[in-house]
Automatic annotation (TrEMBL):
Residues 29-166 form the Initiator Rep protein WH1 domain. GO terms for molecular function: DNA-directed DNA polymerase activity. It comes from Selenomonas ruminantium. This is Initiator Replication protein. Gene3D superfamilies: Winged helix-like DNA-binding domain superfamily/Winged helix DNA-binding domain (1.10.10.10). GO terms for biological process: DNA replication initiation. Belongs to the initiator RepB protein family. SUPFAM superfamilies: Winged helix' DNA-binding domain. It comes from the Bacteria.
Amino acid sequence: MPPKKSQIVSQNPEYIYQNLNFDTPTKFANELMFARHSMKENEMKIWLLTMASLAKENLIDHDVLYEYNISILADKLSINKDKGWRNIIREALDNVSDKSLRIVKRYSSEEDKHNWIKIPLYNSVEYNDFNDTVSVAINQKMLPYLQDFSEKFTEVDIDEMLAIRGITQLKVFMVVKELIAEGTYSISIERFKERLNMPVTSYANFRDFQRDVLKKAEKQIRKNTSLKQFHFSHDGKGRRAATTITIHLTDVESKVLPAPKKIITTEDKIANLDSEHLRLFDEFSSFGVKPESTCLEIINTYSIEVLKSNLAYYKEQLKKRKPEQEPLSAGYLITCVKKDYAKSRRKSWLRKSDTNGSVETELQKTDMQLEDVYKTCKNNAGVIIKKGNIKKLLEIFDVASMSMENMAANMGIPFDVGDARIKIQKRDLRNKETMLFREHLAQRLMSGYITMDSLI
């Protein structure tokens, strides 16, 4: 006998809208984080987002449909909305609705890997194109992995997880967070691969694993998370194969760093010079005494009388120089001051310094000589790069690397310190990186800071 119409009960499902703002870290059961699945990057991120939002609920009901705005989902996944973003979300939701997780049962031992349960990611998925929403129902067997646990869980910042690019890099980050939560910073390579749901036999050559997995993940983690100085190391050495990976952290939040001390720069010291010392600083600099720190040291170390008299002595020697003679360098000016060549006729040289013309006039008189000095120093710098002591050259390069980066930035040209260092080791003069270092060496030669004899 067919049932009466009054006996048919129409049951409308309950919809609960979910907010995807996360003010605090989310707790994930470790079994859930490392369950086996076949999700791709966007699919996994959508699933993680829904799980994180449900973890905030006081009570999760598997009969309730939890509703999400797909535009907000797209924003969370950093999907470009210029073109086709709805199709990307639809495709990911369609794929994730057919997939399942193979989870090790809660509280099973580490060794008991066969005690598992297979659960669909969602009981149902409803896509509403008119409202731009998607609603999901959770399988009841998933509930123990979402709430009410006090151990074997990992706290993660869901927004940091979403910022990681690449499914493998995301899995590596999840392993790292679990190990940090456990206080374990070393893990065997075999167990690490298992945590990534990767066959132990994959990447038989550790160097390939290091290049394609560890280094790429390290770059993503440092760029997109709070672990800015995070890196991996391993126990392999020489022919001994690596068996263990170690995590290194230096950004421990509990460590309170002292307030930074104010650093007085060379520019600050120059700005504090009085007018007389500043005039002498400008004049010594104009004759090639560089860098500024060296020139400043000369100005502050010696008295005004010594500086003025020896500068006058140096100018006089420049005038007496014959065309066929090697031009005088800035190093000779420094030597004049340090050895005080003007000492015997101090008053005479001081009178000359007072009657000498302006810096511009003196520069006009000696412009050709200074240009010749620079050309000579630049040629000598090339010889040093080609034939000099490589260890001393690299020491000078390492100290000057920041200065060369600034020089390149001012010139508007790209400059990579690592590439430049390799080219110096190869003694390659035909590139822009070596050109900047050659300029640096030429300035040091002009100022007398280094000599050819000390490097060759």
